[in-house]
Amino acid sequence: METTATGVERSSTPVRSSRRRIGSLEPWLYLLPGLLIFTAFMAIPTVGTIILSLTDWNGISWNTALFIGLDNYTRALGSGQFRNAFINNLQLIPFFVLLPAVMGIIPATMAHQLALRGGRWFQAGLFLPYIMPGVLIGVVWAWILNPIFGPVNRLLKSFGWAKPPVWLGDFTWALPTVGMIGAWAAYGFCYVVFLAGLKKIPTEQYEAARLDGAGFWQEFTAVTLPGLRGEIAVVLSINLINALRAFDVIKTTTDGGPGSETQVMALYMINSAFGSNQAGYGAAIAVLLSVVTLVGSMLILRLAGDRDG
Amino acid sequence: MTLHRRELMKRAGIVSAGFAAGTQLHTQGVAAQETELTFWDTLNSPPRSDIADNLAASFAESHEGVTVEHRGWSLDELVSTLPRSVDGNQGPDVAQVNNGEALMGPMIRGGQLVSLASYAEQFGWNDIFPEGLRARNMYSADGTVFGEGELWGVSAESEIVGFFYNRSIFAEHGLSVPTTFAEFEALNAALREHGVEPIAFGTLDKWQAIHIFGAIQGTFTTREYLDNIIYRRNDASFEDQSMLDAAAKLVEWNDNGFFMEGFEGVNGDDAVPLFTAGMSAMLMQGSWAAGSVAEGLGDDAGFFLMPPHEEGGTVLHVGGVGIPYAITTNAEDPDLAAELINSFVSPEAFAQFVEAGILPAGEISDDLIVEGTLSGDLYASWNAALAADAVGHYLDWATPDFYDVITAQLQSLLGGQIDPQAFVTALQESYAASFE
After folding, report:
1. Checking phi first, is residue B393 left (phi over 0); if not, alpha (psi -120 to 50) or beta?
2. Is A146's CB within 8 Å of B102's CB?
3. Per the CB < 8 Å rule, is B264 touching A61?
């Protein structure tokens, strides 16, 4: 086919233009699948929850929903049950946030320094609780701590403790026990993150510290901890989110009891929304829980960021 | 009822493409009459699911051109799926709808259920169930008043809470089934004295606390008071002497060691194997545990209900009817749907339940009761409670969130955190707040 320069020009202009148009759309096309998933599973449910939180709806029949403005929020903030649940969440923070971080950093440092044989199996063993479903963890620990046939109390009785606590059913011990279960479930994650972080710290820093006569503890505080600042921020943020949204382990061990000793916000939200047909009120608690979680996480990241700066 | 319109169109298309004229007419005739009834319930595992499937097949057999499809769900799934399916016009014709404000009330108010008032007379349901049991499935026409008005559901199964006991342990210590409340207390004291754990149960997962309290409270109360509390009428209040007496008695029993040591840390269902392993003389549980108890203890197992304070007196026993079957507004032929429900409470259906060791909602025929057996004890107890209209209530029905309130307060009471007066006051505060 014969073509002239003009002809080519004429025929190629729209092609180039449409290519340019496709070219400008191309990044959006790549984003589209993710955007659709985000919209369907994040944006719409989030907006839906916020709208629901402004209604008095029983979660059953749409035609009974009533718009009540911020009433659900004022009710939650004035509710003793909500306050109790919030305080319990705060009391769980040392167990769910700090303890697993400490429990993770110690074996991570040891594994890094000692280069243990069979280290991968060791790592897999430590990480295992983190990948176990919370429901399973709760059921297994409720069995382990059963005061009649559980191995813990049988062992304690064999050592001569005639009447050990009933742990999960005890008003004094229930919250710390649930907290310890949460810490056990989370420390494997902390361990893996810290171990990865430790591998990034240049060995020269340790050598320099040793040349300066630093012992293990000084090495740990002067080299290891500053070197893990970023990882610590990540671990604390994720642990905090887990502490505030704690649900499955508590549901399957104590269901918020005894009394309301281990009642937490997520459990209160689920019970309100689905247990007592107050979907609007439950949605308001969900929004408040999200806000608290967001603020807490931002605070930790901000603190870590300031130190970096 | 779902007409298979697409199927009909498809068949019609095939027919017009070349089938013989006689065949065409026959096929179209059958297809036009073919209707499908669907029912959803919580009978999702054997033997219950088998019974539901059998009943569906029997109904289809006796109704030409009708097919019946049964789907068994878990209760949580059913509760979350049913209302939205009915709203979307994709719900079943018949479904189990949880009593009271759990689901029935909201669905009536949402215009999702069909009243069974006329069918109750037509099928004689008022004769099968005493008033006390019918009331649990009744609501006013607008769905605002529970426990009176029209019938909206019919239950096929029932349950009652009492005490399973180990005949061997009783015989070993020369003990017999108590006939009065005082004898029951003496029995527990004697067992403790002999070093035997008297009553196995567990409150870690909370729900059994309601049963033990309700069982005691049922000896101090009247049908009128309990109905008023549950159906929220006549300014009933938890600040009542029967509540105080029951709370005080619960604390006293706990102090006297009538309950298995460590019950606070044991789940309700975990108490069953402890009892069948011989670790206690009695088990406080509902009739639904009869299968596990029979399997674990065999001929050693027996059952009795909480005895009254005076011999021959009446006790309101914790228990009730199973989740009732209701007709949804999706049903295109409510009359046929009502017939299906009626087949669930027929003598044939009840016989199937009894054969599977499940309590039916109505009276059990005497020829099915074998004295000296666990099932015989259970059926005789049920018939006696039914005849006296003495099936009480689950107290957590009082308000939508009362389960959380009363279980937390009972754990606090048993844990020595509060006294009976504070317990009753807390219940009343929550109850009163639900009217605001």
Report:
1. beta
2. no
3. no
* Cross-chain residue pair B274–A149, CB shorter than 8 Å: yes
Pairing state between β B282-286 and B158-166: antiparallel
Which tens digit of pLDDT belongs to each residue from B175-233? 999 999 999 999 999 999 999 999 999 999 999 999 999 999 999 999 999 999 999 99
Q: State the ipTM, two decimals.
A: 0.82
Q: Which of B254, B404, B436 to mutate to test the interface with A (most CBs of A within 10 A)?
A: B404
Cross-chain residue pair B106–A62, CB shorter than 8 Å: no
Contacts 24+ apart (CB under 8 A), A162-168: A163/B261, A166/B262, A166/B264, A166/B265, A167/B265, A168/A142, A168/A253, A168/A254, A168/B204, A168/B265
CB-CB contact of A182 with A96 (8 Å): yes
Tell me how crowded residue A92 is: count the other CB atoms within 10 A of its CB: 23
Tell me if B79 sits within 8 A of B95, measured CB to CB: no
| Residue-averaged pLDDT of chain B | 90
Specify the CATH class of A71-308 in words. mainly alpha
Cα(B422)–Cα(B413) distance, rounded to whole angstroms? 9
What's the DSSP call for residue A39?
I
- pLDDT of amino acid B25: 35
Residues within 8 A of B (CB atoms), A 135-164 only: 142, 145-149, 153, 163
Residues A18-42: tens digit of each pLDDT: 666 666 788 888 899 999 999 999 9
Mean pLDDT of A58-68: 85
What are residue A160's phi and psi, to 5 degrees?
100, 0
Instruction: Find the farthest-apart pair of alpha carbons in chain B and give their distance in angstroms, rounded.
Output: 88
DSSP B20-38: -HHHHHHHHHHHHH-EEEE
B198/chain A closest Cα distance in angstroms:
15
- Cβ contacts of A168 on chain B, cutoff 8 Å: 204, 265
Residue of A nearest to B264 (CA): A169
Q: What is the DSSP letter of B305?
A: P
Q: Tell me the whole-structure pTM to 2 decimals.
A: 0.84
A119 has a pLDDT exceeding 80: no
pLDDT value for A116: 64
Q: What is the DSSP string of B207-244?
A: HHHHHHHHHHHHHH--HHHHHHHHTT-TT--S-SHHHH
Nearest Cα to Cα of residue B306 among B177, B215, B175: B215
Q: Which domains does chain B carry?
A: 2-26+34-153+323-360 (3.40.190.10), 160-320+371-433 (3.40.190.10)
Tokens of A97: 């946030």
Looking at residue A118, what is its pLDDT? 66
Q: Are B392 and B218 in contact, with CB atoms under 8 Å apart? A: yes
pLDDT tens profile A227-283: 999 999 999 999 999 999 899 999 999 999 999 999 999 999 999 998 888 999 999
Which residue do the tokens 């409340």 mark?
B181
What backbone phi and psi angles, to 5 degrees, belong to A88? -60, -40
